[in-house]
Amino acid sequence: MSFIIENIATIKGRIRAAAEFSGRNSTEIKLLLATKTVSTTNIINALETGETLIGENKVQELKEKFEALKVIPHQTHFIGHLQTNKVKEVTKYADCIQSVDRLELAEKLQKRLEFEDRTIDIFIQVNTSYEESKFGVSPENALIFAQQVKQLDRLNIKGLMTIGLFSVETKKVRKCFQLLKNIQIRMLEKDLTVYDLSMGMSNDLETAIEEGSTIIRVGTAIFGKRPYPDSYYWNDNKETNPQV
Ligand SMILES: *Cc1c(COP(=O)(O)O)cnc(C)c1O
């Protein structure tokens, strides 16, 4: 699939340009391939370009693709809303969970990992856009939540994740990313190990990089348009909000 190879090269160019623009080194910025709805053939094609990081939104999809993707080394992050009854499966198929956003979920993960006698890397998801339709702990509660998660010794806190506001107004989108950065600074002062900032997608990765992103999550700009609207992946038990 040469279009995938070309698109990845284009994204790499965008990462380099945005890093240069903000005086950052582009090697600080990792590319996560957001592979929801993408076939394993196309994912393998993308990984063959040298990429190593993919993200899935649904436990069912993660599970279905797991065997086929074993042929190529990679890491899988879970980036979708995680229901507590899926905890047992997600720890089987994902290397990292970027969407930890409530204590009940964190405690269930802790319990499961105690049973398995292992640990897992996690990110705390913050709802920086304050949209009802999006998941994530509220910015006001993020610090207390992170301190609670820190008590759970099977969860290795690696960073913070957010989905920026969907808007053509860059200023408003930038605010979300600045907010996550500020939360990170406050947490680092409290010795919370939130070194990575997972923020920025196909349409807003430049803004995210300018505001300090270390992981951008790109789907559409690499694999093309998805067959379902994102509300299908993001709001599975919340009201759908009209996009701003
Ligand atoms: C789908 C998805 C992405 C990628 O979005 P694109 O706009 O297709 O680049 C990033 N993050 C999350 C959490 C997603 O669900």
Radius of gyration, taken over Cα atoms and rounded to an integer in Å: 17 Å
CATH names the topology as TIM Barrel
Order of neighbouring strands in the sheet with most strands? 7-6-5-4-3-2-1-8
Which structural class do you get from the secondary structure elements?
alpha/beta
User: How is the main sheet built?
Assistant: 8 strands, parallel
Helix content: 40-55%
Task: Give an overview of the whole structure.
With 244 residues, the chain is of the alpha/beta class. It has one domain: Alanine racemase (TIM Barrel, Alpha-Beta Barrel), CATH 3.20.20. It has 10 helices and 8 strands. The chain has helices spanning 2-21, 40-47, 59-66, 87-93, 103-116, 142-150, 170-189, 205-210, 220-223, 231-234; strands at 30-34, 53-56, 75-78, 96-100, 120-125, 155-161, 196-198, 215-218. Strands 7-6-5-4-3-2-1-8 form an 8-stranded parallel β-sheet. Strand 1 (30-34), helix 2 and strand 2 (53-56) form a beta-alpha-beta unit. The structure holds pyridoxal-5'-phosphate (PLP). Pyridoxal-5'-phosphate binds at residues 34, 36, 57, 79, 163, 201-203, 217-221, 233.
